[in-house]
User: Which sequence fits this backbone?
């Protein structure tokens, strides 16, 4: 293959023609890893694509499962691309004719109901520059991916992730990658996907390392919670939660029903406050609740894990107004013990009373669960590295949800970064954070300057203008939420 020729790679299903970039790297966009989930396949397990013989044009992003953005304005630019073939992936490679390169497989976030693999924040150019192949994938969202539906397999979105990883196993060597050097990574819902895959036996041999960024998993978890969500869906919409009843609805009709399921109300008692549509322990594909499998069992025991969060993930989340529940009730609703409310309020008083509920959401959804996972792995001497992103954007003086991604991907010039990080995001922070990610993907260790999280040390990397390691800086979180 010459440096000027349009790059052509033959996959196990057929040839794909990509695009050579100005820096010499190559990208292949919108490659199908499964057939379009329409008709009888809408709520079925993913099915491999039909083979093709003519080169497939892989120079534009494929259709996205997201039909409506998560919000009118999102921190991460998340394009919606129309079309039925949403089970596709993108490959960014330094060179298709390379050999044995490490591979990072990226699963986007969006609360399991939104998000887009076509985001410019997930471009693989910086990873390619540093000798890493990057794969980003799309998967079924919301009702189609995660509602318990009679007549359909559970956790269809998880089955999509596995199918994409199987595609990587079978094809990535043709793009310069090594199928034995795959690290699976993701942020928010994608970080929860990483933790979920650690607990899925069927995925165990598909990756060697895991990187969970602000990972969120369902709690409470289990088939009874999923069935309760399905009953609530039917009660609120009048539509049976069955494959037959949902199969032929339009995207807009299904999204309108999904909005009704997600609306607040007293009939939601016993369901997770934020995640009704998410991976859940179905007893088969996911044998037991993810956090229990990872903290009490042996799931993912031998997989190196890097995980962390931002300091103020959801701190900007507004508490209900003066007519809403009092603060102790709100804090209790996200899991804070009643006898800890006073200590919690005192600990975070400096941030302002109006941010206490958001801080509780941050702790309950991200910081405490990830810290619990690191603690459990440390107790069993499992290779674990924990971080907290603490650099505060001048836009709102917080280290908020998603802010860390342009630094990890080393994409400070990407669309939307200035709006999130200000006019002068610190280059040294991006250099250091991206370098640690590359080292972890390549070596399964982020480097000598970042020690493992252990029971006796509790070393945590704090990503700031000048990154530093501190011992047990999250003691307050541990004592308030875990002790």
Assistant:
């Amino acid at each position: 293959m010459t440096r000027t020729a349009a790059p052509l790679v033959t996959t196990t299903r057929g040839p794909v023609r990509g695009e050579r970039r100005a820096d010499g790297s190559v990208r292949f966009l919108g490659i199908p890893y499964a057939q379009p989930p329409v008709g009888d396949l809408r709520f079925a397990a993913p099915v491999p694509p039909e083979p093709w013989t003519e080169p497939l044009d892989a120079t534009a992003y494929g259709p996205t499962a997201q039909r409506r953005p998560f919000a009118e304005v999102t921190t991460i630019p998340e394009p919606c691309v129309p079309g039925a073939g949403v089970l596709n992936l993108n490959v960014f490679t330094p060179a298709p004719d390379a050999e044995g390169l490490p591979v990072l497989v990226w699963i986007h976030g969006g609360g399991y109901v939104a998000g887009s693999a076509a985001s410019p924040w997930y471009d693989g150019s910086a990873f390619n520059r540093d000798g890493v192949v990057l794969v980003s994938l799309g998967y079924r969202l919301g009702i189609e991916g995660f509602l318990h539906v009679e007549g359909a397999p559970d956790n269809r979105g998880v089955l999509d992730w596995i199918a994409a990883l199987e595609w990587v196993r079978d094809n990535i060597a043709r793009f310069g990658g090594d199928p034995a050097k795959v690290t699976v990574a993701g942020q928010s819902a994608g970080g929860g996907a990483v933790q979920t895959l650690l607990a899925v036996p069927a995925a165990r041999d598909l990756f060697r390392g895991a990187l969970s960024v602000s990972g969120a998993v369902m709690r409470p978890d289990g088939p009874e919670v999923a069935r309760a969500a399905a009953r609530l869906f039917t009660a609120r919409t009048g539509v049976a939660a069955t494959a037959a009843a949902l199969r032929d609805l339009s995207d807009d009709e299904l999204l309108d029903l999904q909005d009704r399921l997600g609306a607040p109300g007293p009939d939601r008692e016993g369901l997770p406050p934020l995640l009704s549509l998410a991976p859940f322990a179905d007893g088969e594909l996911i044998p037991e609740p993810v956090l229990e499998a990872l903290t009490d069992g042996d799931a993912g025991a031998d997989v190196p894990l890097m995980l962390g969060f931002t300091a103020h993930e959801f701190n900007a989340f507004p508490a209900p107004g003066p007519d809403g529940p009092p603060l102790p009730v709100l804090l209790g609703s996200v899991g804070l013990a009643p006898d800890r409310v006073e200590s919690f309020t005192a600990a975070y008083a400096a941030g302002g009373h109006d941010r206490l509920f958001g801080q509780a959401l941050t702790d309950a959804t991200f910081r405490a669960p990830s810290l619990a996972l690191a603690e459990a792995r440390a107790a069993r001497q499992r290779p674990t590295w924990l971080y907290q992103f603490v650099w505060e954007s001048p836009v709102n003086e917080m280290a908020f949800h998603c802010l860390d991604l342009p630094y990890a991907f080393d994409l400070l010039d990407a669309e939307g970064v200035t709006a999130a990080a200000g006019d002068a995001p610190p280059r040294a922070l991006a250099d250091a954070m991206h370098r640690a990610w590359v080292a972890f993907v390549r070596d399964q260790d982020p480097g000598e300057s970042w020690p493992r999280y252990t029971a006796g040390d509790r070393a945590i990397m704090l990503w700031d203008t000048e990154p530093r390691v501190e011992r047990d800086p999250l003691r307050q979180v541990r004592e308030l939420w875990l002790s």
User: Anything to note?
Assistant: The longest strand covers residues 177-187. The mean pLDDT is 95. The CA atoms of residues 96 and 174 lie 6 Å apart. The first helix runs from residue 125 to 129.
